[in-house]
Amino acid sequence: MIQLAQHDKWKPVFLENLRAQVEEVLDIEKDTEHLEVEEKDSQWTLTSSHPQAQDDELAEVSLSSPNSRAISMTLTCSFTHPTVEEAERLSALQDLIRRKAQALDRLRVGEFEHPDEGKQALAEHLTSIGGRFWAIVIGINRYSDDEVPDLRGCLADTTLIVDYLLDTLKVPQQHILVLTSPLDNKHEVGCNGLPTRAAILAALYDHFRDNDAVQMGDNLLFYFAGYGSFYDGYTSFGASNMRTEAICPLDRGVNSSASIYDISGYELDIIFAEICKSKSLNLTVVLDCSFIGSNTRTFDGIGEHLGRRVIASLDLEDIALRMFECAAKDSRRLPVCVSSAYPYFQRDTSPYVLLVASQPYQWANEVLSSEDQPRWVGAFTWALVSALTSPTMGINATYVDLVAKMQLTIPQTPVVAGLRKLSRLWRQEDVLRSEAGI
């Protein structure tokens, strides 16, 4: 229902705009209906064996270990790859659904008497969150291995995220830890160090889990922009269908002296569970990278000028097993049931919210920003920050609402997952109760 403030008038210009917006919604509805019929006929599905999994965007895999303890991966997907045509239709359908949500949003005047008043109230409310907000922001354009192609937009992405935290949420500078790759031998302003494997893990422990200044219930944000990778599993354990995604640290590589492994989804899941248990359930994980398998076909029409944030897995026998063993031997881990072959743990049903740049069969791309002086950015991060700073982002917006408001101009559909994805953005329930005097 359209609500108008008293000072709004039914002027011809307003009525014409209203008519155009309604027609836009109806046109999108027609296109959506056509694609929905085709989508129902397609033969591919995302599958999940976890009975509580409600996220059809991101499936979870559970495998049975020798001691019958469940092994669960939040970041691992099991799916049948679609054909190019099916993937294109699905992307078109998801784009139309997102456009429809945005068009309907423009038809709503909102909760406040006037848009300016709403924007001011939202700004004041978000500012009240900043003091209880902590962030780890990581961006890697250039990797230590000279054979790894440079990315172009990851440092710009970290700037976008940090500016949002500082300017919109008013997060104190000392609450934000930034790790970025060197650019022309110079660090970005505000950088706290290089995003090596050791530094990333240390940041999770020191800045989040073991930080006495972080209070239970504070908001925690882990943001990563760089390469992602995908591992098919290992033969020693006999689990040919075991897969894991991983984020790639600056110093990843295999050489004669030492090997620096990627940080697997398993390892991250364990650390995130420790953080949620010891500090806060209000953890949001944002990954601007992709984990598409090497055998997955890409879409037609995506030009080579788009940087793709995925890279081949490290070439080493039983590499996934070695990654898991490395995680199990981490001396900073909390005491849990650990096997020498694999880091088993009692799963905590994903209390954090996970935002990923693309679907499992899509690339996470870099594009030129729509600014007077364009710069390379992650398509996902640009759309994310644009949505977060939009005046239509209301106080009651959820993480699902946030993704619906994101506008990407390429075939790339963000994923939101986690049992708390329908909670208010940045978990504002406690703040709202405080403001209401409850």
Structure, explained:
The chain has a 6-stranded mixed beta sheet with strand order 6-5-7-13-15-18, sandwiched between helices. The longest helix is centred in the N-terminal third of the chain and has 30 residues, at 12-41. The model is unreliable at 1-7, 39-81, 108-115, 235-241, 294-305, 337-349 and 431-438 (pLDDT under 50). It has 438 residues and is of the alpha/beta class. The chain starts with 11 loop residues before the first helix and ends with a helix. It has helices spanning 12-41, 84-106, 115-130, 154-168, 197-209, 265-278, 319-328, 379-388, 399-405, 429-435, and strands at 46-47, 61-64, 70-73, 78-79, 133-139, 176-180, 219-225, 228-231, 244-247, 253-254, 259-260, 263-264, 283-288, 307-308, 353-356, 365-368, 376-378, 415-417. It has a single domain (128-435), classed as Rossmann fold.
Describe the protein's topology.
Layout: H1 12-41, E1 46-47, E2 61-64, E3 70-73, E4 78-79, H2 84-106, H3 115-130, E5 133-139, H4 154-168, E6 176-180, H5 197-209, E7 219-225, E8 228-231, E9 244-247, E10 253-254, E11 259-260, E12 263-264, H6 265-278, E13 283-288, E14 307-308, H7 319-328, E15 353-356, E16 365-368, E17 376-378, H8 379-388, H9 399-405, E18 415-417, H10 429-435
Parallel strand pairs: 5-6, 5-7, 7-13, 13-15
Antiparallel strand pairs: 1-4, 2-3, 8-9, 9-12, 10-11, 14-16, 15-18, 16-17
Strand content: 15-25%
Q: Unreliable runs, pLDDT <50, ≥5 residues?
A: 1-7, 39-81, 108-115, 235-241, 294-305, 337-349, 431-438
What class would the helix/strand composition place it in? Answer: alpha/beta
CATH architecture: 3-Layer(aba) Sandwich
**In CATH terms, what is the fold-level topology?**
Rossmann fold
CATH C-level class = Alpha Beta
Number of helices: 10
Q: Helix amount, in percent?
A: 25-40%
- Ends apart, CA distance between termini: 30 Å
